[in-house]
Amino acid sequence: MSLKYKIYQERFLLVDVLNDTITASKLYEFHKSYRNDPNIFEVYKVLTNLIGADFKMTFDEMMDYVEELKREPLPPNFKWAILTETPNSTMFSILVKEDPHFKNKVEVFSTLKASLNYLNVEFKENEFDDDDYVSMS
Question: 87, 75, 13: which is closest to 50 by C-alpha?
């Protein structure tokens, strides 16, 4: 499993990339790691890349994780673009998007270009490969 994130402070952007098998315990651990990053409070745009992610989570585990996400207040201008391609990662993304806490703040996309248009931010696909991401394996 590969989970990594990077905060682009000058763009107010958090990019996280989740690859391979994703379990509930690893997702919670990952979330905790970036929530403790001192630069997270400067972020109001999030790009989550789930291309290649295989969620090995039950529906209840997904719903519990959404509940965990809702514990954090969102800035008024917060936007979260979730890039996905598989049925189980799409299901997870839709659960987040459809929750009233995230109303008009989360969108699900199948292309990077559409994600970036929604966030109104510059980001090149090769930046997913930057070597200074914070990683969990």
Answer: 87
Residues 115 and 104: their CA atoms lie apart, in Å, by: 14
- Given this model, what pLDDT does residue 137 score? 62
Take residue 83 and report the two structure tokens written for it. 């890039």
pLDDT tens, position by position, 58-79:
999 999 999 998 988 888 899 9
Place of tokens 């299901």: 91
Distance CA 53, CA 50 (A): 5
pTM for the whole structure: 0.92
Both tokens of residue 13? 């952007």
Classify the phi-psi angles of 113: left when phi > 0, otherwise alpha if psi is within -120 to 50, otherwise beta: alpha
- Beta pairing, strands 79-83 & 45-49: parallel
